Amino acid sequence: MNNSPFLSVRPSRDNIISAHERVLFHGKKTPLLSSTAINEMVGCEIYFKAENFQKAGAFKFRGASNVVMGLDESYLEHGVATHSSGNHAGALALAAKLRGAKAFIVMPNTAPKIKVKAVKSYGAEVIFCEPNQKAREDTLAEVVEKENALFIHPYDNYSIIAGQATAAKEILEEKPGTDFIFVPVGGGGLASGSCLSANYFSSKTRVIGCEPAGADDAYRSLRDGKIHPSVNPKTISDGLLTSLSPKTFSILGELLERIVLVEENEIISAMRLVWERMKIIIEPSSAVPLAALYKERENFRGKKVAVIISGGNVDLDKLPWL
Amino acid sequence: MNNSPFLSVRPSRDNIISAHERVLFHGKKTPLLSSTAINEMVGCEIYFKAENFQKAGAFKFRGASNVVMGLDESYLEHGVATHSSGNHAGALALAAKLRGAKAFIVMPNTAPKIKVKAVKSYGAEVIFCEPNQKAREDTLAEVVEKENALFIHPYDNYSIIAGQATAAKEILEEKPGTDFIFVPVGGGGLASGSCLSANYFSSKTRVIGCEPAGADDAYRSLRDGKIHPSVNPKTISDGLLTSLSPKTFSILGELLERIVLVEENEIISAMRLVWERMKIIIEPSSAVPLAALYKERENFRGKKVAVIISGGNVDLDKLPWL
Q: What value of ipTM does the predicted structure carry?
């Protein structure tokens, strides 16, 4: 553990503040958007944190750039490697490119074309595998051994979590009285980071996790007090197929308010609503929190709610309502 | 003419300044967005004026709200009326709603569903007609006579033009050294307003009009020194089907630098590029200026160029690349 270049314990308040400086070196402080029409439909005051406008099109650039910008040259000599359904892949590839390092990315062969294209456009090497957790991990292990690259896990890594925490930090700085932050839950990196930021920067703010009912492993894991792997998840939310990890499970078990589950048709409706009313492109995973908020709108009437739009990387040839 | 509640002469600098105050009463100062990737592709510094984020999803709210907010109660007694392929329709309907007035909107029966839906959602009455200039005008004349409503022309109206001018005014206030403003040309309201604002607020700034080659009536009109009607235009840019009018023809003839024509495939590529790289939804008409700038990029290398994204009202069931 002493040789690891990553944070070895749960990120502190100061770790997140330092992470934020590193993230903003290349990343963006994304805007908070709102829609009168959607506020009226839901009955509360919603701020959408537009991480679809983040570098590489998703919040994942925060974690990846925090790690890569913080590494000593020596760790980057043989490049970095990871497995990812897409957004962490693009984020890590771009962060590596910005530091002149190589990147090796293991991607499921079902990943959206636009995400694969983005990774390649940043000069990374893509290695495809079957779309399940075991194939990802096995393929990655081979790549890491062969290339001697530094493995950067998409979420079971405290430095990554500290980076993802900076989105919620920005929300709480811009809208101090926020009652709730709604976040999608895949591997739990964004949710964990958001919980930590709420805890450190705004004690009144509660974080609500949102998951597709067809990929409810985090919901079941937190309910049962043990990590359930994500087995054959069925959802169009391609960013939410992964399982919690020891680090994210531990943080969420302690700090997450609860998880709301939503159906596929609710996700598609919420996605289309945002496209039509807000004129921004969000990916299916990013529609899950709004779908959850709409479903439970009676419980949040009049509240000040932030919704993290996690990303905007959508295959424009394959829209879910067509 | 003395009974008209509209500006009777070409808007002055002060008219545009007053219009801006009225527009911002309900309208938005929209953001200027940029994309590193697109800047690199085109070779200049581009600012996209995001009027797709404007109220009712298009710049047209500026003109409509300037007129409607500036009218005496007495003029609104029987409501307002217009003909429009869509965005002026939605804008006028919303502006009327905000003042508690009725609105009667003549729309071609080919107008995008999302635009018709928006107009109806603002409580206006929609009257459909055949998709040509004569049918629009005849149908409108009937409606105006029957309802005694006040006709608000989508662009042959100096008060409308003063409102549309406020988008360029905002650009020039935020980016004082702007070399060029690229705007789409339909009836010429936005282009005329942009020319006036450039003339009053930034003498170095030139305005370039952009038109689909399949609807090149403004190009031919300015070349030949007389208004050519738009006959059977063939383009997916549904906001650019109309002809210039005496008022817009006169302003553009004097102040517009020139018009660049682009092909349909160039419009579709530019539209998709913005969706993919900027994660914002723009309608085909709004992609015409970027397509024009890209086509002539050699002439604008290193320049500071604003591109007005005129609107984001797209039928999401009918994307041009599918």
A: 0.94
